[in-house]
Amino acid sequence: xxxxxxxxxxxxxxxxxxxxxxxxxxxxxxxxxxxxxxxxxxxxxxxxxxxxxxxxxxxxxxxxxxxxxxxxxxxxxxxxxxxxxxxxxxxxxxxxxxxxxxxxxxxxxxxxxxxxxxxxxxxxxxxxxxxxxxxxxxxxxxxxxxxxxxxxxxxxxxxxxxxxxxxxxxxxxxxxxxxxxxxxxxxxxxxxxxxxxxxxxxxxxxxxxxxxxxxxxxxxxxxxxxxxxxxxxxxxxxxxxxxxxxxxxxxxxxxxxxxxxxxxxxxxxxxxxxxxxxxxxxxxxxx
Length: 287
Ligand SMILES: NC(=O)c1ccc[n+]([C@@H]2O[C@H](COP(=O)([O-])OP(=O)(O)OC[C@H]3O[C@@H](n4cnc5c(N)ncnc54)[C@H](OP(=O)(O)O)[C@@H]3O)[C@@H](O)[C@H]2O)c1
Hints:
By secondary structure, the chain is α/β, with parallel strands linked by helices. Helix content is 34%, strand content 20%.
């Protein structure tokens, strides 16, 4: 769609940035809603991040997304940061306010929550303990979302115990206990679980499979994989065969883009089957 001199501009900063799916996501919505706007890839090296972010108001940008390696470093450059980004220690969205200030937020938490709400509407935090596999960046957003949803106990299983301990120390609250378990016990901790979330890269294209015996997991438990290439991971296929409600990772990726788009372009966008199809086509054969 052609843009005019009054177009609203946003983009994504990364280094490199060429792998990012965000231009395709926001480009779809700009066309869908007929908006006079553009969303552009911005290749910004780490040593120029502050300069680039501070230039956003001067250039008239409405804001931007941030991808690797800028998600942590950008926190220190913001004028204001939302509580999720602060507790997780990473942010992915910048909004330039009308007075030229930079507001940082983490919309992966929103993305996980909205995807769960859409694909497993019957799930409740009271269903039982959550089991989370992995303690990386994705796990932090997932656990923040589970805590915000009111889950009382989170069983965290990770290959490197020190990463899991650090995460538990950063995110546990008086209302939500996070217990840390060795990777070898990943099958046993499924007993009585209300939701299982894989946040490791295992099962992703070109990565080893996730080796997990699901027998101890109740058949009512929701099984979520935040890996989205492939869409149907080995974990989801196995869970579906035994009747567990399943949630794939693509929706988290799509929903996390909604708050930024709404703030920059003034329309609250929707995640539709047509959007899922368009994004799946861009993911085919990639990781
Ligand atoms: N759907 C979405 O919107 C969304 C959002 C974020 C991430 N993701 C996906 O989630 C996955 C993880 O991303 P991330 O950013 O969290 O990565 P990350 O920060 O690098 O964390 C990777 C996690 O996987 C674990 N892991 C890696 N190899 C393993 C192995 N061989 N055995 C056991 N554990 C292993 C790591 O354990 P150690 O701590 O022991 O290294 C760590 O817990 C990726 O596939 C990513 O695409 C999806």
